[in-house]
């Protein structure tokens, strides 16, 4: 996309647009400012729930003498926003990719409920483990080890990741919308009472509105769907159709002084048990590594970034942004920062460059001043986008060679395990472990590379540590 006469005559605005085009290489990605901005807003609104959810989870494990729990949660809100903004800014300016970052959902639960509340490790030591993990990531990325490992993923796993993430997104979205609910006495999950649940009713209407707009090719359809659904929820409460607080969220003023959290990881290095600490770092490392790998591959596939081998060109740059984000997050006082699968919503809106991520970072920073903006978007409204993107990402399933059983098994397990275990990394692990098994079974063991054997073995060790009680015994 070249420079037009309009740009030349546009004065300051024209020069600014030209600068953006040159810096973010719009010509290569056939991008434009308006599309990138809309994509950034969409991604932010879709992932903004983490500003509320992350403090709520970590606040159950972190207590600071002399501060109320509400104050601690407020500090964690500010830390969450700052960590997300810094990490996503690095992604924008260094990696030039439309991927957004924030403290990871799932990783924060492991931090709070497993490491701190179950194993009895201090939250300061848990933060120290996060910082160590981030430093290790940065070092491995700098020498090309992370890129080498990701490129060693079996081909069927690479091409199945996008569809697996799509199924995972659908489950997350439908759960937040009240369409899918827990059923511990029967089938584990089941259909919610959608006709009697105002959240489910409004969510379903918003979902079909968004799908209709998307099918019509309306630019910004996902963003319009989110805002329209949220607006309808506020209007319903103002009109007295539902009780206050059912369809809306409350604003909370953050405590900006985060000094009790920032740097707290340093005290966490005191009196640590080396083996137990190493296992905690190992677990953080594994989960974050393969969550990030899966997200970058899956979202990169949706954006059309992958090459013919299923690899993301220059993947070391977003990997380094992820590593630095994790390190900064741990220093500030939050759990592991990771690349968000919700980035797929912005990609689907046309986001292709770091300008999308830059918009997300700016909106995170602005949310500090507006207490925060994210709280105004109810989870059911923002998660409509996840279901829409899930439907779109399922088309990636056609990239898998389903006629080859050695591709069918690892690809199928990758797709199925992700939503059923609520974890991207577990899905990748299942695919990687099964790949050499089926290759050996059909006599094609020579096609399995040494790194692929190593990855399969490493995942077996990981599952033994994670599910076999090894960590509990060591700490």
UniProtKB/TrEMBL annotation:
The lineage of its organism: Archaea, Methanobacteriati, Methanobacteriota, Stenosarchaea group, Halobacteria. Its main location: membrane. Belongs to the nucleobase:cation symporter-2 (NCS2) (TC 2.A.40) family. Azg-like subfamily. It comes from Halomarina halobia. The chain crosses the membrane at residues 37-58, 70-95, 102-120, 126-145, 157-182, 194-215, 222-243, 263-287, 355-374, 380-399, 411-433, 453-474. The keyword Membrane applies. This is NCS2 family permease. It is found in: Cell membrane. GO terms for biological process: purine nucleobase transmembrane transport. It comes from the Archaea. Signal peptide: none annotated. It is a multi-pass membrane protein. PANTHER family: XANTHINE/URACIL PERMEASE C887.17-RELATED, XANTHINE_URACIL PERMEASE C887.17-RELATED. Keywords: Cell membrane, Membrane, Transmembrane, Transmembrane helix, Transport. GO terms for cellular component: plasma membrane.
